Fold this protein.
Amino acid sequence: MRAIISGASGLIGGALAAHLRGEGFVVSKLVRREPRHPDEVFWDPAGGRIDASGLEGCDAVVHLAGAGVGDRPWTAAYKKQIRDSRVKGTALLAGALAGLDARPRVFVSGSAVGFYGSTGDHVRDEEDPQGGGFLAQVVADWEGAASPAASAGIRVVHPRTGIVLARDGGMLKPLLPLFRLGLGAKLGAGRQWMSWITLRDEVRALTHLISSELSGPVDLVSPDPVTNATFTKALAGALGRPSFLTVPAPALRLALREFADEGPLVSQRIAPTRLLADGFAFADPELAPALRVMFGR
């Protein structure tokens, strides 16, 4: 089988490409520069250009490209970039796939649990409606942009990914130096729920979605969401360090402004209902053992 991946230079995309090759897939990457290798296909999502001929005959497309949500301050310009990098890129790719003579069997078009907004202590899954906030609307528009592919008869799946935990990247990368110094801290009251998934389960789940018959939204999160206080204690324990500190919520809001309440302080308690019902078995279903394995303790 041939799979094409956008965002293949990122944490998830790079790991997925390596995993699929190990499973016998021929993997091609969408790139924004002039292709240098036969496994590269040109696209320019900002400019609305794509080499559609390079997509012909592929079996699966996994679309993971998008500007990092917490990479820069949420100015009006960067919020527009967050939205456009997802919506415009998805619309371009979905339209190109719909126009192919030999269309792929499946389009796995990235999404996020930000769709649910803040859930408080309530458990949410794919049956629940869109929540409030900037990111919830971005995710709704992002998923909607894939509709041309679905209308053309392509099976479209939206993996609503939570916080991805990886030893060498993602959310943990800026935290690990602090935690290793014994400066790990819970955020605010620490009662906000975190829906997480390890990188290896994220990659395994995306691979599962390629071969399954699922379509529509599928939550890619562990069945063990935890509070921020529990997460802080578990990460410190996996590193053999103490964690007694707290970063007050007002300080986070002062530093991060609008992003604080949709990022580190948001409470999202999400269940992977459809993924489990489809027979997926998590390698890392519980947080503390997952972190101990990740850090060799």
User: Anything to note?
Assistant: Residues 140 and 258 are 19 Å apart (CA to CA).
